[in-house]
Amino acid sequence: MLDEQQLNEKQQEESAEVLTDKQVKSALEAQELLKRVLGSEIYDIRDRVAYILSSSADARNSDIKLAWRYWTTFESDVIGEGGLTEKSMLKLSKISSLCRVRAKIQNEYKLFQADASVKKRRGTLEDKMKEGAIEDKPNNLGLYSVFIDESGKNDKYLMVGSLWLLRYGPDYIRKDLELKDWKKHSGITYEFHFTDMRPSSLEQYKSFFLKFLSLYPEVGFKLIVVKNKGFTDVATAITDLTFHLLSDGVEHEHTSGRAPLPRKLDVTIDDEDLGSDAVKLANIKERFRGLGRDGLFIGDFHAAASGKNLFIQAVDLFVASVNRKLNQPGDNKPKDQLADFILNVLNLNLGQSNYDKSTVFELSDFKLNV
After folding, report:
1. Domains of the chain by range and CATH?
2. Who has the most CB within 10 Å: 174, 244, 259, 334?
3. pLDDT in tens, 82-117
4. Strand pairing partners for 158?
5. pTM of the complete model
């Protein structure tokens, strides 16, 4: 028979086990929610609130702004052409319901966090972070949303490429659905990956890239390339290249006037390995914090599966096209034709050094003939 001390210890152990199970369950739910949001797979109120939070820093900090963006994005038919009325107000999702979902996403799932000052006011900021953790962010903060892929690990040239969005609003749901509808009506059931392209699908790959650019004409592509020589650890080299690509890319967007600071930086990489991806993103985040760039606020850094994410698929085609021309030049096979097509569309001439254009620019100083 257990004495009172043993009983208390057993209860504590059982409580710890329950807490651990709950944490694991929450982590899995958070991972699935993030996967759906990044892939624009929006099914229910939790997905819709998470999508709004992912695209709006203001909505993370204000339940009023969250509700307004939710209503105008997902319930605009209820509001109608006459605008918000008392009658339509009664039919819209309740702010209290949206607030509860937002709290679960931010507090339990630890996704799409509010600013530290807001978390402190809401009482959710941990005690150890309350002092000196508040970072003042301006209202209506701009965005750099960057999607990244790499290529050439075992080739002559190593490269990291990126696709840059300068805003990411709820209207992107419509664009994403339009692109997916285009795939469906075109009879395309596969993902767009350069390495998987067959000769018979060359024209569909070309059409996809043009359709993507027609829906997102504001995107920019950036690239950094180095000779794959002298690295003791290629994974570390890729992390370094990714950081420099992001840092120099931010500087270019700011100084060119195309997307000046202040802005928040969100980064999504193509997932390869859960552990190494997490370490890479954490290292890059830490370097940015150490850099202390005025006006640059570090946002969400994630690894996402490419299956539902058309931005990842588009940057895959871009980076792989560069890889094809640099590391396997001289042929005229279907993949070479696709690479030529994509780079011509983007007006990227790999024979030029110090490439710098508004749509695409190359950040490395390599010369093709060295």
Report:
1. 4-129 (no CATH), 142-362 (3.30.420.10)
2. 259
3. 788 888 888 899 999 999 999 999 999 999 998 888
4. 226
5. 0.73
